Amino acid sequence: MAVEARAVVARAKGAPVSVETILVPDPGPGEVMVRVQACGVCHTDLHYREGAITDDFPFLLGHEAAGTVEAVGEGAGELAPGDYVVLAWRAPCGRCRSCRRGRPWYCFDSANAVQPMTLADGTPLTAALGIGAFAEHTLVAAGQAVPVDPAARPEAAGLIGCGVMAGFGAAVNTGGVGLGDSVAVIGCGGVGNAAVAASALVGARRVIAVDLDARKLEWAVGFGATHTINASEVDTVDAVRELTDGFGADVVIDAVGLPSTYRQAFYARDLAGTLVQVGVPDPTMSIDLPLIDLFGRGGALKSSWYGDCLPSRDFPVLIDLYLQGKFDLDGFVSETVALDQVEAAFDKMARGDVLRSVVVL
Ligand SMILES: NC(=O)c1ccc[n+]([C@@H]2O[C@H](COP(=O)([O-])OP(=O)(O)OC[C@H]3O[C@@H](n4cnc5c(N)ncnc54)[C@H](O)[C@@H]3O)[C@@H](O)[C@H]2O)c1
Ligand SMILES: [Zn+2]
Ligand SMILES: [Zn+2]
What we know:
Elements: E1 3-10, E2 18-24, E3 31-40, H1 43-49, E4 59-60, E5 64-72, E6 84-87, H2 97-100, E7 118-119, E8 126-127, E9 137-141, E10 145-147, H3 154-157, H4 163-174, E11 182-186, H5 190-201, E12 206-211, H6 214-222, E13 227-230, H7 236-242, E14 249-254, H8 259-267, E15 269-277, H9 291-297, E16 300-303, H10 311-323, E17 335-337, H11 342-351, E18 357-360
Parallel strand pairs: 4-8, 11-12, 11-14, 12-13, 14-15, 15-16, 17-18
Antiparallel strand pairs: 1-2, 1-4, 2-7, 3-5, 3-9, 3-18, 5-6, 6-10
This protein binds nicotinamide-adenine-dinucleotide (NAD) and zinc ion (2 copies).
Nicotinamide-adenine-dinucleotide binds next to helix 1, helix 4, helix 5, strand 12 and helix 8.
């Protein structure tokens, strides 16, 4: 018997989201039903509402969630009802050409629940990033539910499921930031500040936070930034070079996703430095760079999908670092809100008032 749940649905491009009653099917083979306890509001949810990801409305939004397993289908592995989990939008299939080559963090055929959740009239919903967790219950593939230490409160733990992992992994997994590196992070929202915190944690010597908003920069200092640049006042490339003996940073992370910030990241690198693009561009955007600069500046230009994370490996590590007081996950929880306040949370995000609003259910 399907379970009824209250959930946040985006019905049409650009239209405000609404709280609706949805139907969540009983878990089938390889699926689990999760009772969601908390789910962060991410910029990507807004991208969905704006129709910037796909046109498959209606969407069931929300994808940065923690909760407990309520019911398991056949073949759900070791998961059992009551397990405390963080939901992941990557569950490596083990069979695609990337998994077979030993690179499951790129998995090209990540698992999701097979059965759709629906509106009360049976209209299938597209779950954001295969999760859909602004909902009392949600249905995911068993591999998407990653057990973590239940001592971590759900408001904080859920954030590991997307933005924080994306930013942390952009620095550590994709950018390979390590001891002694200089790092610049352009855009210090939830994603960028996680990259700042990760860089500081692994021993980067200089961690330069760049944003247009002074509040974001203050928060970045709290997460371990050694220097800040207000890009509304000075030129980002010049300022990064000044802070790195005139050379540029070893790793520059674009956590905004605009042609202008990509260009800044490209030129704010030292020779042979690494650019990591983690901010998601709009499909209409393009960039024009002199080919001689691509060659002459060398290094690596990388995209970071979900921080190149392996959820089953990385989520428990980040939760442990949090519980040991080494990684300030609580610092990303700006406020907790109710299910019917997601639209207001989008406004606060757009105004830059929050790093993360977290819906508590
Ligand atoms: N690659 C991935 O797997 C992945 C995962 C999650 C989110 N994202 C993407 O990462 C991006 C950031 O997400 P977020 O939740 O942190 O968003 P956010 O809106 O909270 O943060 C964006 C920050 O960028 C700043 N900014 C905007 N324009 C700027 C500019 N020109 N120069 C400097 N700073 C500027 C804003 O002031 C804000 O602080 C989004 O595009 C989101 O979709 C990517
Ligand atoms: Zn795969
Ligand atoms: Zn997200």
